[in-house]
Specification:
- By secondary structure, the protein is α+β, with helices and mostly antiparallel strands.
- Helices cover 40% and strands 16% of the residues.
- It contains 22 helices and 26 strands.
- The strands form 6 sheets. A 7-stranded mixed beta sheet has the order 15-21-20-19-18-16-17, with helices on both faces. Strands 1, 2, 3, 4, 5 and 6 form a 6-stranded antiparallel beta sheet that branches. The protein has a 4-stranded mixed beta sheet with strand order 12-13-14-24.
- α5 packs antiparallel against α6 and α21 packs across α22.
- The structure holds 4'-deoxy-4'-aminopyridoxal-5'-phosphate (PMP).
- The site of 4'-deoxy-4'-aminopyridoxal-5'-phosphate has 15 residues, from α13.
Length: 774
Amino acid sequence: MIVESAPDRWAELAGEILASEYRLEAELVPLPGENRNFLVSTADGERSVLKIATEESAIGALELEHAVLEHVAGSGLDIAIPRTITTVSGEAVVRWPMSDGSARLARLSRVVDGVSWCDSARAGPELLRELGRMLALLDVELARLSHPAAERTHPWDLSAASRHRPSVARVPDPGCRRDLECAFHLWAACAAPRLPDLPSSIIHGDANDENLMVANDHIVGLLDFGDCLLNPTVSDLAIALVYAMLELDDPLEAGALVVGAYDDVRPLETAELDVLFPLICGRLAASVAVAAERRHEDPDRSEWFVTEERAWRLLRALVGFEPAEARAVLAASTGAAVERDAGAAPRELLEKRKVHIGSSLSIAYAEPLKMVRGEGQYLHASSGRPYLDLVNNVCHVGHCHPRVVEAGQRQMARLNTNTRYLYDGLTEYAERLTATLPEPLRVCFFVNSGSEANELALRLARTHTGRRDVVVLEGAYHGHTGNLIAISPYKFEGRGGTGVPEPWVHVAPMPDGYRGRHRGTDRTTGEAYGEEVGRVISEAAAPTGAFITESLLSCAGQIVPPEGFLETAFRYVRDAGGLCIVDEVQVGFGRPGACFWGFELQNVVPDVVVMGKPIGNGHPLSAVVTTADVARSFDNGMEFFSTFGGNPVSCAIGLAVLDVVEEEGLQANALRIGGRLLAGLRQLEADHPLIGDVRGTGLFIGVELVRNRNTLEPAAEQAAEIVERMKGRGMLLSTDGPLHNVLKIKPPMVITAADVDMVVRSLGDELSALEALT
Ligand code: PMP
């Protein structure tokens, strides 16, 4: 906390310190910048800079700065730096007690001659190369130094740039907000995950255009080592590049000169080149975000905004480049191989697909995306652009989770066989999986897809009850086989469908408290929908063998059935002698946040639970878990066998998924981050008439768009438009529900607060834009 903020009080303090500790009588001029710095001019023409720090805790930082300066000075590096002038008693740092018991710290250093880079003539190629060389030499030197105070962070720590993301909201212009969001997103998805594995060292951390001193077309000095800290070494280069590229017509071409010269001295690793452009964008984003925050605090402090306009111009230019292209340009004159997507261009793939792949297979987006890599909650397209995956619940613990990948690879290299042999994985996995379920759900069958699992669940129920008839919910989807299409109104009532295809299928109303026949979210509504299931059972010509439902309705439009629904429905089913099958293919494994399985929200225990999608994090694995009683009925002499189901590789992967969910606390993350997202979306609902309903639990969320909140006229076109617009911002959404007007959100469970905050801000801006059009 700065107690005395009046500049003259600081000048007075500076004068006292100079007189008492340095025996200097001098003229003091406050210097622009973030620190309390004064230019000190004595009568004999000597000039120096006095820096005063406000907090006792800054002692570590000042000691670090001093150590770095001494190290650089002793290294033989041909560059002037601000050498420390010691006090008359030989101290490098003054500790100055204040009357209130606190202390100030001060350090005096020699002025470095020259003109700052920003005040010198426009940088030519030679100077750019010199910058690269100088910085690499400095980084090589600094890599030899270690200091306990270097393990710190501060507002300009590029490895923690996301701390400034909330300030996006302070930017008034929606176009600027979009560019800024894009820059932060690139940093978060393409740089942040890689940083811990990069070479790290103490860096200068602020080789900006005010700190670089130029004379006679050469770099002669480097100022301000106050931002030194331990960081990925390449951060130093990224930061310098930002300022070197400001106001240049071809910023990347110019940047490439710096990078090439840097690489000649300190060869860059491929991974460092991969993060360079995202780091540049991150630094620019931090710079303009800080300016936006400060403008909010004090719009009149012009010294805070020296770089702002130029930084915005560069940021705007850079986010316009495809990141893969930017990487290639920046790395053009380095020794490292340029990693480009070697496969076909997206359009070419699309043409081939038209020939060889059935056209009933849909493809997302007007301009389809070619994905080349997945990591965590992000997919990376061939353009190098990252996409936040908001819809894929299959890559539950994150795309290509290293632990899951490793488990599969290890087992694949050791043994893969089938369930006719004994091996540890099968029973170990069955034990672990059933431990997540209530009694008496203890017997597993493993197959390879949600459809296979639902087929098997139907067979189990039919064998056990000796009955064929099935009750399903409107809007439901349970799989792509013949039997399952017959119990999937989402398909047979949808495009290309021809209504209820089989006499043994009976459809009960969807428990949709927003637009269904009973409205509300309370228990009475839930029970009313349960009664509907009872009615359908009693009206069917044949006795019911099974009732199948998702615990949370996905394709039906991301619906959370009101409390009491399954309790009531199950009572009717069981009273009629049927079995209750719960399809957890979409929502299980902790996604509901409050519980591991969706059915637990409804206070029921099913007879059969069907699992798929997230169970193998993308590996084709699914399971049916039932009671010993039902399993016994199924053992009627006919062997059950699935060639791949439950093989050792699948079991190893399934186990790894359970481990990760548990060890990374992903169910708790779903509750926390899902809650944050729901709260943000509900705030949007208050401001945007297009939103009719926001619903969900954990990381299972739906946003229903309507043209009119009274008539509930669906806004399907707008929903589709939002999906396209969000894609343009690097976020993957899709629509669902029989009216195609629900935005579905069910991301990998590793999604972060920063991600969902971006989603809410971006969705808000796009809704405003759409609303302005109508
Ligand atoms: N059940 C539900 C609820 C589903 O959403 C799906 C797939 N979307 C399935 C079953 C079928 O799973 P799969 O595609 O793995 O056969």
